[in-house]
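Re: nicotinamide-adenine-dinucleotide structure - here you go.
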Amino acid sequence: MPQVKPVVLITGAASGIGHATALTFAHAGYRIAVTDLNDAGGAKLVTEIKAAGGEAIFIPADHSKEADNARVVNATLAAFGRLDAAINNAGVEGIPDLKVEQQTDANFRHTLSVNLDGVLWAMKYEIPALLNSGGGCIVNVSSVAGSIGLAGMAAYVASKHAVEGLTKVAALENATRGIRVNAVAPGAIQTEMIDRFVGKGESQARHDLAAQHPMNRIGSADEVAQAILFLCSPASSFITGHILPVDGGWLAK
Ligand SMILES: NC(=O)c1ccc[n+]([C@@H]2O[C@H](COP(=O)([O-])OP(=O)(O)OC[C@H]3O[C@@H](n4cnc5c(N)ncnc54)[C@H](O)[C@@H]3O)[C@@H](O)[C@H]2O)c1
């Protein structure tokens, strides 16, 4: 941990897991750079962090575009002068309930362009910035869908399986360079993404989704944020290339 306040970059932080992660890292003493497609949500988060005495900037970005990923890292370095941790969280679920034979090029390409290309291009520019700062940590946000199939979710499942492979490659390439690269694999977590799946409020679909988890509940974004903070802390100093489930036991079945 540097003497100056460490800097974290969090992608897709206007909502859900990214939002909770930004607040958790701000509370832990990090300076925060957040990105999103959603300008209003990003600006609101920065106001929230500053009101609590933290330092934060919002950088509008579309992570599916390589150039935006370069611009985001440059803007973070311009604002704070260093990068110590990067959380590649921006993601989309794609169109739900599309069987393989119903897939469209548009859905498959869009889902992979955000969830997979976005993580590749982010790491491409984050790694040199982390090296220049003396090392650091990357945490990619995968899913239980990174290691099991979910019917009707071909594009999402393919993207998350690939992100876990990419995480391991980046971990190997950087293991002796002071950069640890890990991923979290959340189960169902209460965010807008889950509301889009099962609707807001109680429903049979929400009950059935909760029942997929041996703990028989949906998780909170804060529970994922705490796991991400752990993977960026000295407490995880010998952990790299690992996929950490935050899933109430789903993957243990
Ligand atoms: N909620 C869950 O149950 C769950 C479970 C497993 C994994 N995840 C993963 O967690 C991550 C966050 O999901 P969430 O549940 O918080 O969803 P969310 O929809 O609440 O938040 C995702 C954020 O990413 C942003 N975003 C989307 N595309 C972007 C792009 N191209 N460039 C920049 N920002 C973009 C959105 O605007 C949004 O603010 C995703 O990678 C998702 O796949 C979520």
